[in-house]
Each structure stands twice: as C-alpha cells, then as structure tokens.
Amino acid sequence: MLAIWLKICERTGIKEVTINLHAHTESVRAALDQYGSTISVRLYEEPLLLGSAGTLIRNRDWVADEPYFWVFYADVLTNANLKNMLSYHINSNMIATIGVYRVKNPNSCGIVSFDREHVVQEFVEKPSHPKSDWAFSGLMIAAPSLLDWIPHRSPVDLGFDVLPSLAGRVRGYPITEYLVDIGTPDSYNAAQKTWPGLH
User: pTM for this one?
Assistant: First the structure.
C-alpha cells in the first residue's frame, strides 16, 4: 500500500510527503528503506492519536506557505488520476475539494450531498438516513485556510468535526476509477482479487 501511494504521489508531481505514524512504525520505516522513493518523506510519530484533523493542525507549519496540500487516507486503495483532481480544484476557487465515490452502504460512510456544480451542500458522517450514496473517498486537496476551521480539541476528526461545517465552501470530485476502502478484512480480501494496478 505504501509503495502504491508513493507511486501515485510521484506521478502526480508531489515532491514531499508527511507520513503519520502510530502503529507498525518499524514496518513503515523498513518499507521506505526498501522502496527508495525519489520523494522526500517526512515521518511524524503520533503516540497519542489526535484524529485526522488533529494531525493536520500539528503539521500546520509544514503546509502554511503552500497554495494547497493533499490529504490521503492510508487505507484507501485507488488508481485515480490525481492530476485531474488537482486541475478541478485549481479551477473551483473553493477552500477544498474532496474526492467522492458511490457506495453500496452509505450508512457506514461520510455521505455527501451536492448541487449540479458539485458544491457540497451537506456532509454527514455515518448517517442513519442517508440522502445520497456519494461518500467521501479519503482523498482531499485543500488550501491552508482549511486549518482555521478545525476546532481546538483533541481528538478531532475531519469527517465528524470539520467537513460538516464547510457546506458551500467545498466541491466534490467524482472518482470513476478504481477505489476501495480496505479498512475491513472483507474489503481487504476483495481488493486482492479486484485490484487492477496502476495505469
């Protein structure tokens, strides 16, 4: 998975990444040594989990002077063309662009409702009565000003605590390529049989 993500970053033109470490830190370090990526890799160890948004706040200085930064959830397996998503974001004039994809089980995901321009009108994490089947993919590109919307508490989560407050300020980017959340044993096993590889 780490090698796949580094290849995606390389082909997207990303020069530097931060990898958030909590569990299996030695395995990650060993994998990085074997892969030998041309990307500059910065490791950030998080002994106490801060949440997906809390990690962003802790690394604020790293992205403060950039026009935008990417967020990738490590348990997402995809071969999406992120150059297209980047162009979409640059042309949108929004605080962030989130990759969205259709799911069969919207009760277990962060569900997005958007208008005809794909401007997000509502974001609900794991809704009991979902209004759509478009889910947040775990891929996001955002301006540093997004960090100003993160509540000052810990842990703090992008899906529960940040994205719901950004209705009208975020666009959804529909991902049509292969994308699977491999966060469960069943989805991981299914991905072993369906993964088409990077194109």
Answer: 0.94
Cα gap 29→43, rounded to integer Å: 9
Which SS3 state, helix, strand or coil, does residue 124 take?
strand
Crossing angle for the helix pair 82-90 and 2-12, to the nearest 10 degrees: 50
In the chain the first and final C-alpha atoms are separated, in Å, by: 16
Per the domain annotation, does 85 fall within a domain? yes
DSSP state of 159: I
Percent of the chain with pLDDT over 70: 100
Quote the domain boundaries for residue 61. 2-194
pLDDT tens digits, 125-139: 999 999 999 999 999
- Partners of residue 134 on adjacent β-strands: 102
Please write the tens of the pLDDT for every residue from 34-56.
887 789 999 999 989 999 999 99
Among 115, 78, 79, 80, smallest CA distance to 94 is for 115
> How far is 83 from 99, CA to CA, in rounded Å?
12
Number of domains in the chain: 1
The conformation of residue 119, written as its DSSP 8-state character, comes to B
Q: How confident is the model at residue 140 (pLDDT cuts 50, 70, 90)?
A: very high
